[in-house]
Amino acid sequence: MFVQQLINGITVGGIYALIALGYTMVYGILKIVNFAHGDVFMIGGFMGLILAQTTNLPIWIAYPLAMLITALIGVLIERICYRPIRLHGADALAILISALGVSIFLENFAQLVWGTETHAYVQKIQRTAYNIAGITLSNIQIGVIVLCIILMIVLYLVVNKTKMGMAMRATSQSITSAQLMGINTEKVIALTFGVGSALACVAGILVGTYYDAVYPLIGYSYGLKAFAAAILGGIGSVPGAMLGGFLLGIVETLGAGYISTGYRDAFAFGILILVLLFRPSGLLGKKHVDKV
Amino acid sequence: MAMLEINDLKVKYGVIPALKGLTFHVDEGEIVALIGANGAGKTTTLHAISAIVDKSGGTISFNGKNITNEKAYKIVGMGIAHVQEGRGIFSEMTVLENLMIGAYLRKDKADIQADLKQVYSLFPRLEERKAQNAGTLSGGEQQMLSIGRALMAKPRMLLLDEPSMGLAPVVVEDIFRTIRKLNKELHMTILLVEQNAQMTLHVVNRAYIMENGKIVHSGTAKELRENDEIRKTYLGL
Ligand SMILES: Nc1ncnc2c1ncn2[C@@H]1O[C@H](COP(=O)(O)OP(=O)(O)OP(=O)(O)O)[C@@H](O)[C@H]1O
Ligand SMILES: [Mg+2]
After folding, report:
1. Could you tell me which of A74, A14, A82, A56 has the C-alpha nearest to residue A201?
2. Alpha-carbon distance B219 to A148, whole Å?
């Protein structure tokens, strides 16, 4: 029972982590919370569904295409709704309001186009369940976990070992200093939104496939959980978002399994409150000891 | 022809003017200082050259090319490296990463390695600490890193904003010695911003003295050192 719950927790946790990465990367660079990110995740899920359902494309083309489109939507959101405010020198609050506006727009847009109901997801992969020593595991579940881990490793390597990653890290520490090094920070910011949105799209497709459902308001709860995961790990920290996502998934699944499913969300936010009380910068967040 | 030529430069923060029409130049091979009290507009001048702040008037040209409307991230590629006030190092990156990011736009791998060696020979401390997080360096070491990082861009001109700020007198002397060496041995053209007029006027060829966003005096270092008014106000003699 414990191992079973643990595995289920890791599965949702990986999905939270993928979404949390988008929050944390954007926060790391711009110090803003992109409240539309949960809805980008929803759009990504729908993109995957539509492309796989209405075209005859195999999923290994349809899903990357959905990622690309979602990435472009993320970049456009930044370009149209945040950049003008940012370059105008307005404070974070103005961008926050804009983000909420984008979120409301995307949710209503989705309801208008796809209706308010829950859609069954395309199931192009035959679901098979394995039973190993009393633990039930599906191939989908294994796929979700493996894919989440691979994507995180790739992201980690890109951020830490490539020139583009170096530019991202530099931009997140100081936009001005990064520009003085010759880094086109606007391009880095656009790229950050693109990568975060593509990962959210993967999460949307995975949720759709795993739970066989997508609906216009799905981004609300997942977005909130993933945001909590990002805070839990230390917002701005890429490894933090990964750790926070898995931890949140595991805690809420164990809590739901052992105590009561009704309190699933209470466990998630309970642990968040505890961490914030005792370690406000999050588990892997920096404690701001900048030397002057 | 001057290497850097600034003509009637104006900058405003909101409605408040910070630079009220600045005209000066730096010739190739020179060290020129901008000296002035707190708030005179020295940092703003360097920020305007690097396009970090918007200009409300005037022109800036570098090597005969008008760079007034260039974007900030293009300036270093044109050959101007800016060592910021307060150093502006990336404190969560290692010393080596900081140096390598200085060479962000360069593609010549072998040349970059040669320049890295040169920076290390100029500042042996940096080599000893290359794997250390830059945020853990002492103030003097951070200043060395900031200058070293600027050199990694292989610039034709360095803008140095108060490199002596907050450093102990011995370290300040060290930094000034390095600045002179950069100019004499590496033939680097330097625009140096300083409040420490005493020391600065012994290192530079010429200086401009700023007050309230304007240049109020200019001349060779020797002329300025011998000017009674300047001796009184800026050298405290
Ligand atoms: N970002 C800003 N917003 C508003 N006003 C500013 C800003 N930066 C500088 N100023 C103002 O512009 C004037 C010039 O500032 P600047 O930083 O250029 O002076 P400085 O000569 O470099 O001084 P210091 O020696 O203290 O570094 C000051 O009155 C300052 O208050
Ligand atoms: Mg200054």
Report:
1. A74
2. 65
More confident residue, A56 or B23: B23
CA dist A259 and A257 (Å) reads 6
Supply the ipTM of this predicted assembly.
0.94
Task: Tell me, in angstroms, the distance from the centre of ligand 1 to residue B211's CA.
Answer: 12
Q: Give contacts of B71 with chain A, Cβ < 8 Å.
A: 179
Q: Report the pLDDT averaged over residues A77-94.
A: 90
- For the record, the structure tokens of B81 come out as 């490296």
Helix orientation angle between A185-211 and A139-161, rounded to the nearest 10 degrees: 170
DSSP state of B195: S
Residues of B with CB under 8 A from a CB of A: 50, 52, 71-77, 81-82, 84, 86, 88-93, 97, 100-102, 104-105, 135-137, 139, 142, 149, 153, 166
Distances (CA, A) of A31 to A23, A25, A93, A145, B196: 10, 9, 11, 30, 36
| For range A55-80, the mean pLDDT | 96
Q: What is the DSSP letter of A120?
A: P
The residue ranges of DSSP E strands in A126-242, in sequence order, are 129-132, 135-138
Q: List pLDDT tens digits, range A174-198.
A: 999 999 999 999 999 999 999 999 9
Chain B residues close to A166, C-beta within 8 Å: 93, 97, 100-101, 104
CA gap B134, B87 in Å, rounded: 11
Whether residue A203 contacts residue A163, with contact meaning beta carbons closer than 8 Å, is answered with: no
What residues pair up with B57 in beta bridges, in sequence order?
A: B10
Binary contact (B90, A180; C-beta < 8 A)? no
Domain B2-79+155-233 superfamily per CATH: P-loop containing nucleotide triphosphate hydrolases (3.40.50.300)
Q: Does the beta carbon of B15 lie inside 6 Å of ligand 1?
A: no
Q: Rounded to two decimals, what is the model's pTM?
A: 0.92
Domain map (residue ranges) of chain B:
2-79+155-233
Residue of B nearest to A184 (CA): B73
